[in-house]
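tool_log.txt
---
The assistant was asked to compare two proteins side by side. It first ran the structure predictor on the initial sequence, then on the second. Raw inputs and outputs are pasted verbatim so the downstream comparison step can read them without reformatting.
(1)
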Amino acid sequence: MAERLELNEVLEALPLWRSHPGDRPAIERKLVFADFNAAFGFMTRVALRADKVDHHPEWFNVYNRVEVVLTTHDAGGVTERDLDMARFIDETAAATGVKA
């Protein structure tokens, strides 16, 4: 099982992410793209990576907005797997033209 990380340390390493409200430790990022096509393109790239590394985000999409939540369920919190996925998401968002 993956080792659970301290949420504050994770958030220091990921300035674009926030603590997800709720009863479990998780991180979230809300992204805005130019349009639906850009948002869906971003999601497709992340989905391919998530499937490859077998670590899938929780997410929600409406038109040009995407909300992403990361946590490792079997560890009961945020792990290195989430940190890696968040970094990939940040890189992909920047390459896809995220506006916010």
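(2)
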Amino acid sequence: MIDLTTLADLTPGICSVTLRSYGIDDVVRISTEAGLAGIEWGTDVHVSDAASAHRARQATEEAGLAVLSLGSYYRAGAFSDFGRDLDLAEALGAPRIRIWAGELGSAVATADHWEAVVTDTRRIADIAAGRGIAVAFEYHGNTLTDSPATTLELLDRVNHGNVGTYWQPAVGLSDQQALDSLHEVLPHVVGVHCFSWGPAGERFPLRNRAGLWQMVADVLRGNGKDLDIMLEFVRDDLPENVLSDAVFLHALTLGED
């Protein structure tokens, strides 16, 4: 018999980039209509300065939703000013900032690039820890976190308790390959981006990969660590597809078929 007391809670949320062409209030309204519990606010459009960060926080909290994280576009290894992202995260009330692991894929990255990403990540992780904010890598192609092996190598070299990683199924992988990649990085995963793409990046309803996402949810719940699972990039960027994908996401987080 499964011990339900040891299962992790999965918080169903959304990345604001999913609704990039909509304003803050519309993102909150659509998320509320979809019954989602939280939002990762991106710095690409919605949260670009102190005023928009305060507005996003206010609108999110007034709707009874949680701010899950700040989706930044900071590239570790650039040694640029991370203070702006920290200020936005604080104003937003975000517990975590998502960053990118450099700007080169692992197959072409030089030793110098690796060292720069490692050193800069340690630097910003220390600064963020001092302000009570965690840091996590985007798990993505054309960065050093483009495979489980390189993600683990990077995290091992950074070796910082304030740094984790997100996970998402890499485009073109079979369900089993994607699931295997999750198992490999699982101890370090602090959040999941959830979508259904074909091998050429075609967007489908989330339910089209029901088998994969049901297995992913089972693994995450069984891991015993509460985390966020966030919709990202629905078909045609349409609000009605957020609503329909959210129905399936809720079933996943509740452990329903």
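---
observation on (2): The mean pLDDT is 96. The radius of gyration is 17 Å.
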